[in-house]
Specification:
The chain has helices spanning 17-30, 46-56, 72-82, 102-112, 140-145, 147-153, 183-188, 201-211, 236-253, 256-273, 280-288, and strands at residues 7-13, 35-41, 62-66, 88-92, 96-98, 116-124, 134-135, 169-170, 173-174, 178-182, 215-226. With 300 residues, it is of the alpha/beta class. It has 2 domains: 7-226, Spore Coat Polysaccharide Biosynthesis Protein SpsA, Chain A; 236-299, no CATH class. The strands form 2 sheets. Strands 1, 2, 3, 4, 5, 6, 8, 10 and 11 form a 9-stranded mixed β-sheet that branches. It has a two-stranded antiparallel ribbon with strand order 7-9. Helix 9 (236-253) packs antiparallel against helix 10, helix 9 runs parallel beside helix 11 (280-288) and helix 10 (256-273) packs antiparallel against helix 11. The two termini are 36 Å apart.
Length: 300
């Protein structure tokens, strides 16, 4: 591990170089620690890649890795990890911008608190409002009775994502747009599961941190801006991809009874939505068929 690099920023670019360049500019502006920036381009169109190359080619702190195919979020990040030399890994969406010296704030906190493995910042939207920085892991209690009851049944009594927290607080699952790890701990839990193509990676990672007897924390002093949907265009295939990942998450982390119950509840929920939402009936049929991985965008 290089002593010259403290934080490795790792981000994915896919036909969204404008966002990636804005992220880099914010790192330039706010980061006081030693750092490197690793960009994995997931087979963008030529003009987008050229735009990114022109901006990054003269900065030795930036490594632009060109993927031969779009292997998704988890695989792209793991490719970035192979090139990272930092003591800390800062996985950050390319459609975000730093609003302060996030990496310094989070690294200082993790330096002191060795039981914390994963941290996230306060995520704001374009209007400066608090966005989603954390949430609960799927559970039968949550699906049947809602978040409030589910939190009461948790031994940690995790906070609602509607509460404005003003101090470091333990959370169950962090936002995938901003995940900060010690490199050694990230490797200890096994990194990203590359079976996930686009969604649910943060649920899986956060769950594995807690399973290792370690903790996940929200640090409100660190702040980023996240452009909602800036790097992903919503359509039926993208919506379906979420449920493919969700079913895989259930299969991975729950016993037969719980995962079967959660899948049944999902089918009923999508059935109720099938007559109200565009693509609703197609998503319902996909859930009836357990959203097979063969339908994933990974294979396109």
């Amino acid at each position: 591990m290089s002593e010259n690099t403290f934080v490795s920023f790792i981000t994915i670019n896919y036909n969204s170089s404008k966002f990636t360049i804005d992220l880099i500019k914010s790192i330039y502006k706010y980061s006081s620690v030693k750092y490197e920036i690793i960009i994995v381009d997931n087979k963008s169109k030529e003009n987008d890649l050229v735009n990114l190359e022109k901006f990054t080619m003269y900065d030795s702190k930036i490594k632009l890795i060109k993927n031969s195919s779009n292997e998704g979020f988890a695989s792209g990040n793991m490719l970035g990890v192979k090139h990272a030399k930092g003591k800390y890994f800062f996985f950050i969406n390319n459609d975000t911008r730093l609003l302060n010296d996030c990496s310094l704030i989070m690294s200082k906190y993790l330096d002191i608190n060795k039981d914390i493995v994963l941290a996230t910042a306060k995520v704001k939207d374009e209007k400066g409002n608090f966005s989603s920085s954390y949430k609960l892991f799927p559970s039968l209690t949550k699906e049947l009775f809602g978040n409030s009851i589910a939190r009461k049944f948790s031994k940690h009594n995790f906070p609602s994502n509607k509460v404005k927290l003003d101090k470091p607080t333990l959370v169950e699952v962090v936002s995938g747009s901003c995940m900060f790890f010690r490199a050694v701990d990230f490797n200890m839990i096994g990194g990203f599961d590359t079976e996930f193509f686009l969604y649910c990676e943060e649920e899986d990672l956060s769950k594995r941190v807690w399973n290792f007897g370690k903790k996940v924390i929200f640090l409100p002093d660190a702040e980023i801006l996240h452009h909602s949907g800036g790097s992903t265009t919503k359509n039926f295939e993208i919506e379906r991809e979420y449920y493919i990942s969700y079913i895989y998450l259930l299969n991975k982390h729950f016993n037969f009874f719980v995962k079967s119950s959660l899948k049944t509840l999902l089918i009923f929920k999508l059935f109720r939505r099938s007559f109200k939402k565009k693509n609703g009936f197609k998503l319902f049929l996909c859930a009836l068929n357990s959203c097979p991985k063969a339908l994933s965008l990974r294979f396109k």
